[in-house]
Amino acid sequence: MKRIGLLGGMSWESTAEYYRLANELVRERLGDLHSAEVVMVSLDFAVIERLQVSGDWDEAGRRLADEALRVEAAGADLLVLCTNTMHKVAESIEAATSIPFLHIADTTAAAIRREGITRIGLLGTAFTMEQDFYRDRLTSLGLEVLIPDAPDRAEVHRIIYEELVLGVVTEPSRATYRAVIERLVAAGADGIILGCTEIELLVGQQDSSVPVFPTTRLHVEAAVDAALAEAVAIP
């Protein structure tokens, strides 16, 4: 089994899901007492959030690249960045490291294409929905991306930063997300990307009339696929 490297803490609420899912999937596939081989560096999200708000993405990229090197030095065979938004600095991380980097937009786009969907709605932080680093990656992979209107984007973003990253899950916020999803469907979306790793704490397939694509789970599944590509279960 290859060792999965997790660069997390952004936020730790969703990073905990990465760790849980990786171990559950390995146990499902290999059985018995098997669990995932994982190394992780978890950052202080308050520091990264301040860099996001100030727009200092260069410094954010330097910090994440340095921490990714720590993950690699700890013995990781592949690297998973446990956040959608910070894939804005993915190039800095890839340039600094020598192990394979699994891009969350790539794993998500592959799942969408397998379902035969090309017109997709995107939920995430304002950075992910409004900036081009994520949408352009999806577009380059053959997808047409729809985003909510400005008031909906603001509310989706607010709920992430004021509630979900703090582990707060409420029914009013779930109802808000359901309404935003249905407005995207009415605008022509044939599927919905849950494009922030915390969103899966709030909504899932049961909250949408069209297929949803949970980026956290899809990202972990791709990591486990890579980790187990040559693994043999020990009886």
From TrEMBL:
One of its GO terms (molecular function) is amino-acid racemase activity. Pfam families: Asp_Glu_race (PF01177). The keyword Isomerase applies. The keyword Isomerase applies. It comes from the Bacteria. Keywords: Isomerase. InterPro entries: Asp/Glu/hydantoin_racemase, Asp/Glu_race, Asp_race. NCBIfam families: asp_race. Belongs to the aspartate/glutamate racemases family. This is Aspartate/glutamate racemase family protein. It comes from Labedella phragmitis.
